[in-house]
Amino acid sequence: MDIQAQKSDIIKWLERVNDNRIIRQFMLLKESAEQEIKTKLSKEERDFIAKGLESIQAGRTKSNEEVAESTRKKYPQLFK
Questions:
Q1: Nearby residues of 61 by Cβ (< 8 Å), 6 or more positions away
Q2: Which of 15, 22, 24, 71 is the most exposed place for a label (fewest CB within 10 A)?
Q3: Is 79 in contact with 72 (CB distance < 8 Å)?
Q4: Where are the alpha helices (DSSP H) in 1-80?
Q5: What is the pTM of this model?
Q6: Are 40 and 48 in contact (CB under 8 A)?
């Protein structure tokens, strides 16, 4: 089973869980994983992530289609 299938399986199972103890354990696992990721990032990386999140919250985003179209226009030789 690939990772996407495993994640999907976990999500489906978790949607049916009604035990608060299990939910709390998952939340602790999530928080622990997030903290581990933060400690592995440099200050510069954390700053870039924060700046990106601020841009998203301010609505300064482009869809994948918009980026693809502007790339095709700027570099048409790559899309022959």
A1: 55
A2: 15
A3: yes
A4: 3-16, 20-40, 43-57, 64-74
A5: 0.43
A6: no
Extract the tokens encoding 18: 């009604």
5-20 tens-digit pLDDT: 999 999 999 999 999 9
Question: How many separate domains does the chain show?
Answer: 1
Q: How many CB atoms lie within 10 A of CB 24?
A: 10
The C-alpha atoms of residue 44 and residue 63 are separated, in whole angstroms, by 25
Which one, of 70, 73, 54, 72, lies nearest residue 62 by Cα? 70
Per-residue pLDDT tens over the stretch 26-54: 999 999 988 877 778 888 988 999 999 99
Token readout for 61 is: 């985003």
Domain of residue 12 covers 3-79
Q: Can you say whether the dihedral through the CA atoms of 43, 52, 4, 79 is positive or negative?
A: negative
pLDDT of residue 39: 79
